[in-house]
């Protein structure tokens, strides 16, 4: 989901193929892109259902991000902690 959002950001700013390759691809090369799997889809469904049962709204993109962090046991870095802070087992890193 994060990769898709970054790609959309570059498209919305009319980055050409050269700038895209030099900037976005270079930055993304430092990170691991996690491909979808059945386990990740199941975790997404669990996260979405937890939000529903807690009467919280979670957008599909945020559910993918939370599900990925939970499935792989990694911290979620965000400036919008309140979008995720009700999900059990999720470790959030944020700055005020």
Per DSSP, the total helix count is: 4
Ends apart, CA distance between termini: 24 Å
Mean pLDDT: 92
Share of helix among residues?
Answer: 40-55%
CATH superfamily descriptor of the largest domain: 5'-nuclease
Low-confidence stretches: none
Q: Which strand order does the major sheet show?
A: 1-2
Strand content: under 5%
Number of strands: 2
Order of helices and strands: HHHHEE
- What's the number of domains? 2
Structural class: mainly alpha
CATH class of the largest domain: Alpha Beta
**CATH topology annotation of the largest domain:** Rossmann fold
Overall body shape:
elongated
Q: Can you lay out the helices and strands and say which pair or pack?
A:
Elements: H1 2-12, H2 17-28, H3 38-53, H4 60-72, E1 76-77, E2 92-93
Parallel strand pairs: 1-2
Helix pairs in contact: 3-4
């Amino acid at each position: 989901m994060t990769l898709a959002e970054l790609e959309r950001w570059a498209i919305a700013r009319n980055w050409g193929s050269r700038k895209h390759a030099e900037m976005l691809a270079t930055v993304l090369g430092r990170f691991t892109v996690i491909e979808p799997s059945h386990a990740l889809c199941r975790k997404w469904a669990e996260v979405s259902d937890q939000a529903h049962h807690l009467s919280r709204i979670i957008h599909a993109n945020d559910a993918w991000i939370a599900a990925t962090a939970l499935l792989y046991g990694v911290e979620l870095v965000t400036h919008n902690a309140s979008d995720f802070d009700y999900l059990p087992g999720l470790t959030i890193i944020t700055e005020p």
